[in-house]
Amino acid sequence: MTQPFTEELIAQVGGPDWLRNKRRESLDLFNTLEVPTEGVEAWKYTRVDVDFSELRPHGKRERVTDISALPASVQKRLTSTDVGAYLVLDGPDVVYATELPTELREKGVIFTDLKTAVEQHADKVQQYLYSVVPAEVPDDTTIAAPGTTPSKSPDPSEGKFSALAAALWTNGAFVYVPRGVEVELPLGSFRVMSEAGTYTATRTLVVAEENAQVTFIDEQDSEDLPGTYAIGAVELVIKDGARLRYVSIQNWGKGVTHIQRQRGDVGRDATLNSLVVTMGGTLSRTEMQSYLRGQGSDSEMLALYFANEDQHFDHYTLQHHAAPHAHSDLLYKGVNADQSVGVFSGMIKVDLGAQKTDAYQKHRTLMLSSEAQNYSVPQLEINANDVRCSHGSTTGPVNQEALFFLRSRGIHKELAEKMLVTAFLEDVLSRVPLQSVVKYIEGIIAQKVGAA
């Protein structure tokens, strides 16, 4: 087997001994695994055609001191969103960042890029990094507690891209909120790429200690970049009684392949509210998983996507109930136009002993074209006998009576379809309390409807 990634890359991305050792293990695993194919159940409807030997890392970028030097799309977002502090990464490098407010720093809150965190906060990073999204663990196995070693995967073919992200990540965001601290304004990471035909691997680590509260917005944006790969992992640690709201907005340009695994580890009486928005890229594979470790834990998993032209969007979800009296609620809604493809595969897994589980899963798709395709696979795996679990999926075209009603009132077709699409997605958007984020998403939807 060709091994395009060698030990030399570990030296280039660097880090302390413990990190380099972990990188080597992950790289060895990557070089022994095959790219997942349709033969792997979790990748049944999505094929990634990639020749790793032809890929090269995204080039380095210099830091700028003026926001006007950033891409126009990023400037617009930074001036229209409500965040307390943010950082901008172009490929592997932080190119712009604002400081965390003094009040939060005095309370022990840390917000910086992950590379800097490894150098300045090594004890905290080493404790949690790779604890929630290790390279080798598949989606449906028990996750080890943060700081411990997880079991190895019985089906390692699913771990190819996770292993790459674990081995060669160059940067990302690090958020640490101490016990009992509440961060009112969101923190944000804005990732861009500016070099076609390259790959970038990033990693985000958010830790909310006991009874802490924080909102983190993770955005990706670029111009059209043929043959470009964005591979990443997001680790969310929510300790007992803590609350974390995590928002991911993917709006890469055409030609980008996006593969990212996001997983939350939720403690006793803790809450994870997640929103995944997929709008860009040519092929996007996003895995969002909640591991409800603690009794009374809660996970709200929301997502919306709009695929048009030849876009292929794949969402793979897991609601893993490992403790009793936990609650999870998933609502994914999508729109397919033109010749696009949408894939949803969602699992509710209830472990033995996780009694009084209350779990819901709903996926709905609106089809704007007879040439578009959609695959929906909701699943249940229940090993406890006193639970309430339900799942459902619907796929259908625009309501022609509603469209006719609007057209008969003098509304042209483009605006009428925009109104119906927005109404279809409204029950997801209505659950998001971040109005600047909602307004931005609605703007992307309006552009998509016009293109469709």
From TrEMBL:
Designated name of the protein: FeS assembly protein SufD
Pfam families referenced in this protein's UniProt entry, alphabetically: SUFBD_core, SufBD_N
Gene Ontology BP terms: iron-sulfur cluster assembly
Species of origin: Deinococcus phoenicis
Residues annotated as domain SUF system FeS cluster assembly SufBD core: 194-424
Family as reported in the entry's similarity comment: Belongs to the iron-sulfur cluster assembly SufBD family.
InterPro entries from the UniProt entry: Fe-S_cluster_assembly_SufBD (IPR055346), SUF_FeS_clus_asmbl_SufBD_core (IPR000825), SUF_FeS_clus_asmbl_SufBD_sf (IPR037284), SUF_FeS_clus_asmbl_SufD (IPR011542), SufBD_N (IPR045595)
Domain named SUF system FeS cluster assembly SufBD N-terminal: residues: 17-187
SUPFAM superfamilies assigned to the protein according to its UniProt record, in alphabetical order: Stabilizer of iron transporter SufD
